[in-house]
Amino acid sequence: MTITIFVPRDAAALALGAERVATAIAREIETRGLDARIVRNGSRGMHWLEPLVEVRTEKGRIAYGPVRPSDVPSLFEAGFLQGADHPLCRGRTKEIPFLARQTRLTFARCGVTDPLSLEDYRHYQGMKGLEKAVTMQPADIVQQVTDSGLRGRGGAGFPTGIKWKTVLDAPGAQKYIVCNADEGDSGTFADRMIMEGDPFVLIEGMAIAGLATGATKGFIYTRSEYPHAIETMTAAVEIARKAGILGPSVLGSGKAFDMEVRVGAGAYVCGEETALLNSLEGKRGIVRAKPPLPALQGFLGRPTVVNNVISLASVPVIMDRGAAFYRDFGMGRSRGTIPIQVAGNIKYGGLFETAFGLTLGEIVDDIGGGTASGRPVRAVQVGGPLGAYFPRALFDTPFDYEAFAAKDGLIGHAGITVFDDTVDMLKQARFAMEFCAVESCGKCTPCRIGSTRGVETADKIAQGIEPQKNRELLADLCNTMKFGSLCALGGFTPYPVLSAMNHFPEDFSPAPIAEAAE
Ligand SMILES: Cc1cc2nc3c(=O)[nH]c(=O)nc-3n(C[C@H](O)[C@H](O)[C@H](O)COP(=O)(O)O)c2cc1C
Ligand code: SF4
């Protein structure tokens, strides 16, 4: 029987040499005259083990990693095609603790299947949600999503069902579904992993959104820095269209929905939904004032759902297994699961999908294994570049939208970046202001001017120039940006700055000599 070997085609695995590993494996198969084939799967999300090669055996899938091309001959010598032991052997993939502890609903197939095989997709429960949706009334689909408690995974945590209802109820002959796949947050990669590892789940989710709201056209807006995601997504859309999943009659229902992939040049602000819509329309990516909401006047002024990749990719399982099934996971008003992306200075970095409710400490210390450097964890930034820095004293905060907000933080797109005790928090605060200055769309003054003044003020503190006065000035500036900015880029930049100042005040104290001169 032909043996199946899995070598990821995910960008993270490719960056670590997966292509050369696949070539080396193919060469060994040929020279040894073996009956084996290579499937290029997505990533399991265990980055420290990439490239993670798996072999399907009678005992289940056996994992080996991280594999370098030079390891390949010894793997064959050891008999890895039969799942034999080897220094790189990690045992049964699904029993690796990092995977075994997860609740994979949205990422159930990621790393398991061939991303472009519809057969695989269907074999692993794919398309069941859409099959149900085509038989339902739009309002019932919307109700099911509302009942599931799903909230937008792009950052703001807005209830997805309510957004869909607004679009469903909006008058208009033409409506749109726009998938926000810009994924600009540093340290986040969940959207990319879905697009590269299980693109049909996003297509299915978007088609369901179309049926639910009456939208017949969808766009996936992503960035040029994601070439592999673009390639896989584009190919998957083509396959889905040929299979009748997309087109004038979705799954033979007589209801139309089609989509295309659009690529932006990659500006952080183009992830903001209104700037995204401008970019999608071929205009400069500048933020639009709200109202009107995109749900009422979005793409080309028409009612538009703008949802994050993970929000949309979570819909198929909700339609398939039911609202109650999904809602049963989580805590408080944070229902279901969330793919946490653990990055930065961390021993076991990667994607960890789990029900809401784990504490930050559990994620960083137990699951992430502490820092890669082996030094103590000092700060964790949660929610991307606009997220707050949490000190160890706040590690008991559960992963929940409200719990983080109560501690002046945010979950955002669920990226967490870990820093050890060598981090300089004043530099991090300065970086937040600098990032905002570089990425600002320039539409409003608090963000455009405030961020530049913020960099200057942080520099003055670092130089010991009137430190007390400049600390107060920086806090005051943050206040102005927080309440005076038009969008969350200027409005949330104060989160990393103020959290750094409040939790790590010692880093904002000037050199003693300058203090004396004050
Ligand atoms: C500066 C800025 C950047 C953003 N970047 C992204 C992004 O890359 N991806 C995303 O889904 N949402 C991003 N958002 C949030 C979107 O504006 C919007 O809330 C989201 O796409 C809605 O989808 P959801 O309800 O499914 O989360 C960003 C917001 C701001 C202010
Ligand atoms: S806050 Fe910044 S990015 Fe947002 S609208 Fe104002 S200038 Fe543009």
Relative helix content: 40-55%
Number of helices: 24
Classify the beta-strand content into a percent band: 15-25%
Shape: globular
The residue-averaged pLDDT reads 96
- Strand ordering within the main sheet: 2-1-3-4-5
* Main sheet properties: 5 strands, mixed
Instruction: Give the tally of β-strands.
Output: 16
Structural class based on helices, strands and sheet pairing: alpha/beta
Q: If you compute it from the alpha carbons, what radius of gyration comes out, rounded to the nearest whole angstrom?
A: 24 Å
Alpha-carbon distance between the termini?
80 Å
Poorly predicted regions are 513-518
> What molecules are bound to this protein?
flavin mononucleotide, iron/sulfur cluster
Features:
disordered C terminus, binds iron/sulfur cluster, 5-stranded mixed sheet, globular, alpha/beta, binds flavin mononucleotide, 518 residues, iron-sulfur
Quick recap:
This protein has helices at 11-15, 18-31, 72-78, 97-100, 118-123, 128-133, 138-148, 160-169, 190-197, 199-213, 227-242, 273-280, 309-313, 315-321, 323-327, 360-367, 401-406, 425-439, 445-448, 450-462, 467-484, 488-492, 494-503, 512-517; strands spanning 3-6, 36-39, 53-57, 60-64, 89-92, 176-181, 217-223, 258-264, 304-308, 330-331, 334-335, 337-344, 350-355, 377-382, 389-391, 415-420. With 518 residues, the protein is α/β, with parallel strands linked by helices. A 5-stranded mixed β-sheet has the order 2-1-3-4-5, with helices on one face. Strands 13-12-16-14-15 form a 5-stranded mixed β-sheet.
